[in-house]
Automatic annotation (TrEMBL):
Disulfide bond entries: C24-C39
Protein name: Germin-like protein
GO-annotated cellular components: apoplast
Signal peptide: 1-20
Gene name linked to the record: ABP20
Length: 209
């Protein structure tokens, strides 16, 4: 038999309204803090905070990598704030590629819904895991590891990604090296490329130095 006082406390905790907030729709008019966006006042929250329609339209793949990523992060989708997740749409035209990159703050799950995508990642021990994904296939990319996606086959590809963070972060290796102001002689040292190759890539990707 449980003591009567304990039963009373247990029942009151079950039956009383929760003191925890159900959600924290982002107030985009306020600056972010280490925990994310501040919450909107309950009186200003609406259904539109929990609905995002932007993933239904193809992204513009008319660029150097022939790829487009349409994010559904907290900035676009305020209802995600505080929930520890986000989404994105990936469009890859013929020969499209998402170069080697990392998400420092999140793991990623990719679901292919059209065409085929060759995708993979490199572990911290330099083991490579890659596969050609067809419609309906899903692949996970562990947090912080270098990974890539490349269109394969004869038709453009579309995929949806989910992340276990409202702000997964992004660092593209080639842009960090050749699209930045890191001096060319240092890029040559850390990549073992010669001066002509480095300057060619910097010209393509907009780097200086």
């Amino acid at each position: 038999m449980l003591p009567i006082p304990f039963l009373v406390l247990l029942l009151s905790s079950i039956l009383s309204p929760s003191s925890a907030a159900d959600f924290c729709a982002a107030d985009l008019s306020l600056p972010t803090n280490p925990a994310g966006f501040s919450c909107k006042k309950a009186s200003t929250v609406s259904t539109s905070d929990f609905v995002f329609s932007g993933l239904g339209a193809p992204g513009n793949t008319n660029n150097i990598v022939k790829a487009a990523v349409t994010p559904a992060f907290t900035t676009q989708f305020p209802g995600l704030n505080g929930l520890g997740l986000s989404l994105a749409r990936l469009d890859l035209a013929i020969d499209g590629v998402v170069p080697l990159h990392t998400h420092p703050a999140a793991s990623e799950v990719l679901l292919v819904i059209q065409g085929s995508i060759e995708a993979g990642f490199i572990s911290s021990s330099n083991t490579v895991y890659y596969k050609t994904l067809s419609e309906g296939d899903t692949m996970v990319f562990p947090q912080g590891l270098l990974h890539f996606q490349v269109q394969s086959g004869s038709t453009p590809a579309v995929a949806f990604a989910t992340f276990n963070s409202p702000d997964p972060g992004l660092q593209i290796t080639s842009l960090s090296l050749f699209g930045s102001s890191l001096p060319s002689h240092l890029v040559e040292k850390v990549t073992f490329l010669d001066d002509a190759q480095v300057k060619k890539l910097k010209k393509v990707l907009g780097g200086t130095g």
